[in-house]
What does this fold into?
Amino acid sequence: MMNDHNDVSSDEQSLYGLLPTFMGVPPVRNIEQSDADVVVSGVPFDLATSGRPGARLGPKGIRLASANLAWEEYRWPWQFAVQDELKVADYGDVWFKYGEPAMLVENLTAHAQRLLENDKTMLTFGGDHFITLPVLRAHAEKHGPLSLIHFDAHTDTYSEGGAIDHGTMFHHAMVEGLVNPEYSVQIGIRTSYDAENHKYNVLDAAWVDQHGAEATLERIREIVGDRKTYLTFDIDCLDPAFAPGTGTPVSGGLSTTAALRIVRGMVGIDLVGMDVVEVSPSYDHAEVTALAGATLALEMLYVLAANKRQKQLP
It folds into this structure.
C-alpha cells in the first residue's frame, strides 16, 4: 500500500518514530498535495504525565499492533472495507526536541492547523492526554466551540495543575472556550471530582456498566446532538484487565467489548477529529493494550466511513 511520492527525510523523523505506518496506509508529508481524507499523526510526548511515564512510545505501539488488523478485508461487523470509502495516510510523528514541552505545544498546534486548513480529518495517537489540548485549539479555531466525547477514568478537569499537565486539559479547554461542556460527555469516569460544580455531563463507569452500551449511546446522542464533535479516548477508560499498558490504571473500567460497541454506534454523529492516548507499551502484556488502541482507532475510521456513505445516499 506504500507509494513513492510521499518522501519523509531522515532528519525529520522522530526519535521514537522510525516505524511502520498505521494499518500499512501510505506515508505522507506533503499535506497540501495529498488527497487523503484522514491523516494519522503520532505525538510521542509524555512530559505532562503524573503517573508512570512511557506513553511517548504509544504511537509506535499502536502502529505495530495494527499489523494484527491490517490483513482483514473489512473489520467485523462492518460490511464494507474502510479503504473503499476513505483515503487514509500516515504523517508519522510530530517533531519536537525532547525535554522542551513548549516546543511540542507550538509544533503540534501548527501541525493541526496545517491539516485542518487542507480539510483533513485528524486521527492522532498519543502520548499522554495533554496532547489533546493543542489539537482542540486548532479544531476550535476552524469550527468554533466543540462538543467533546471523552472516554477516561479521570475527568481531567482539575484546575490546580500546571498549564502542561495531563489532568488539566479539559479545564483549560472549557476556560478557553474550545468546548461547550453543556453539550459534552465524559464516559467511564471512576475517580474523584467535584460533582456539584462539574460542568461536563458524566456517564461514570458504574452507570455504563449498569445501563449498557445502547443506553450510553442514547445519552451521548441526546447530549451532543448534531453539533461538531471531537472524540478523545484515553485507554485507561478500559479496565486494567483489558488495558494494563497505561500510566494511571484504575480498576473497575469498561471492557474492550463495551467500548467498541459504543464507538461503533456513533455513526451519524458529526465527528471532526479523534484521538487515542495514554497507551504505554512498557507496562503492556502481549500488546493487549496497544491492540485495543489500534482497534478503537480503526473503529473510529469505520464510523467516519459510514458517515461518508450516509451522506452519499440519495
The longest strand covers residues 271-277. The helical segments are 58-65, 67-70, 101-117, 132-143, 169-175, 205-224, 256-264, 288-312. The mean pLDDT is 92.
